[in-house]
Amino acid sequence: MGLSGSHISRGAVVLALGFCIVFIHYSVRYSYGILLPEMLVTFGISKLFEAGIIYTSYFIGYTAFSFLLGLIINRADIRKVVSVFLLILGSGILLMSLSNGLIEAAISYLLAGIGCAACWVPIVVVVQRWFEKKALSVAVIDMGATIGFFLSGIIMPILVKVGGWRLGWQLFSLVSFALSPLTWLLLKSHPENSPQKKGESYKESLRHMVVLIRDLRLWMLSISYMLSGFYVMVPFTFLSKYALHEIHIPYSVAAALVSVIAVGAIPGKLVLASFSEKAGRLKAFVLSGIASIVGISGMIFASLIQNTASIIMISSAIIYGIGYGSLWPLYMAYASDIFSVERVGAVLGFLTIFFGIGCMSSPPLAGLAADLTGTLKTSFLMAGIASLLSILSLLPTGVKRKL
Questions:
Q1: How many domains does the chain have?
Q2: 22-47 pLDDT, tens per residue?
């Protein structure tokens, strides 16, 4: 069926808006690790476990509300939901910029996590309604995440020098507030003339959810997603601190390593997403996992060769980025491959619970491991093992039927 010019232009607006929303979402999420060294000084925190607690608070809010939104996504007006949650996100980050201690920062980041809950699953669902090539369309909006932390790694150190770490959070707050009215005006939940089924009753939604929960594939996909959340958060929380204090790289360079990950994530996102459309999702997942493990291994061994440590760290960050960049398009598309369009909102909400568990547990556990052993290498080793297990967990998920 051909596409009208109007459909294409409206779809482009939805795609561009989704890109911007995902951009601010992941900029907020991953800038914490970049700003962490300066925040620790202000808060008087010396234990990495405590630093991990702040990050965990974000994922508590994000996980709980992502699941709730996944359950009601087929009944709710996504345009209104995302607009309101962007205001919550902006408020949380503004409060974060005003925090002076552990408790204040944890509560503020919890609020930001609640706001971010509407900035991924609902956007993914809308984009997949507009475009047939699911992995590629999600990869395009996911580029917002990649560019977000790429720019964060460059801009945040500059803002720290100009006005301190608080200025970085204030900038994100301003962008979040600006996106809210734009979303209200421009986001279209469904393509025009597309068949729209009447929303299910909550009783029907619950019955279908029970059917989904009995499916082994959902559990194995969820476990894999949880392990991915765990290993992804180790570098994004502690890479800058690790490079600064154990590899002895200057702060400006250590912070920029997050941007280097983005350099690898861009081709990883697009190439592996395209590869998965032809060769299959599982093969793409294997390649993604190999890249992540190789990159993490390079980070661990970089300190052993001090003369070339910076080069090794940069190379490892690029390789890691290739694996990281492809994860979200692959998981989102694979969930749609296995389950029907009508069920995918609930499925993504369910997956996000497990992803959130992985993300919530990662910073404090990785920080505790570093506190006990005296090195973040232990934390990165944990991340490499989790990456391997995430791929192995996908093996029983062969597509048989849609639910």
A1: 1
A2: 999 989 988 888 888 888 888 887 77
Full residue range of the structural domain in which residue 114 is found = 9-189+198-392
Q: pLDDT digits over 338-391, tens only?
A: 876 556 667 777 788 898 899 888 989 999 999 999 999 999 999 999 999 999
The answer to whether position 318 is within a domain reads yes
Query: Tokens at residue 83, please?
Result: 């607009």
Name the region of 172 (left: φ>0; alpha: ψ -120 to 50; beta: rest): alpha
For residues 47-77, one letter each, b for 16 or more C-beta atoms within 10 angstroms of the residue's C-beta and e for the rest, the string is: ebbbbbbbbbbbbbbbbbbbbebbbbbbebe
Establish if 293 belongs to a structural domain.
yes
CATH, residue 336? 1.20.1250.20
Cα distance between residue 272 and residue 282, in whole Å:
11
Distance of CA 33 to the CA centre of its chain: 14
Residue 59 lies in a domain: yes
DSSP state of 101: S
